[in-house]
């Protein structure tokens, strides 16, 4: 029988901050997929083939980020810093026993998911 995860009474503002952090991180990761591989303009390169392997690392030339892309990345990073700080320093954590702190933090990451009602 699967172990039942611990239940914690997370305050709504902490739950909201955690969801906002998750959503912002997902949006940033999606945005970053479309960015050039280097933030700065870089020439193409190809490394030597490594001994005992067939893989030969290489990268095409990178135009670097545009000013708009640099600004968007900076906004995402600032938002992520603010949200992660709000979650990590929330007063709720002072009410949790030290032995249960890791379990509580892990439970918060899944608190937004619908409860599994299967028996």
Question: Quick gist of this model?
Answer:
With 119 residues, the chain is mainly α. The chain has helices at residues 12-33, 67-88, 101-110; strands spanning 45-46, 58-59.
What do you see in this structure?
The chain has 119 residues and is mainly alpha-helical. Helix content is 45%, strand content 3%. Strands 1-2 form a two-stranded antiparallel ribbon. The mean pLDDT is 91.
Essential attributes:
3% strand; mainly alpha; 119 residues; elongated; 3 helices; two-stranded antiparallel ribbon
List the helices and strands and how they pair.
Layout (H helix, E strand, L loop, with lengths): L11 H22 L11 E2 L11 E2 L7 H22 L12 H10 L9
């Amino acid at each position: 029988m699967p172990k039942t995860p611990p239940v914690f009474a997370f305050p709504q503002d902490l739950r909201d901050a955690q969801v906002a952090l998750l959503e912002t991180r997902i949006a940033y990761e999606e945005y970053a997929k479309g960015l050039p591989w280097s933030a700065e303009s870089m020439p193409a390169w190809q490394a030597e083939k490594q001994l005992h392997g067939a893989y030969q690392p290489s990268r095409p030339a990178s135009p670097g980020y545009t000013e708009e892309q640099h600004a968007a990345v900076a906004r995402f990073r600032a938002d992520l810093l603010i949200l992660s700080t709000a979650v990590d320093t929330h007063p709720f954590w002072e009410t949790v026993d030290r032995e249960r702190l890791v379990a509580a933090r892990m439970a918060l990451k899944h608190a937004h998911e619908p409860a599994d009602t299967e028996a």
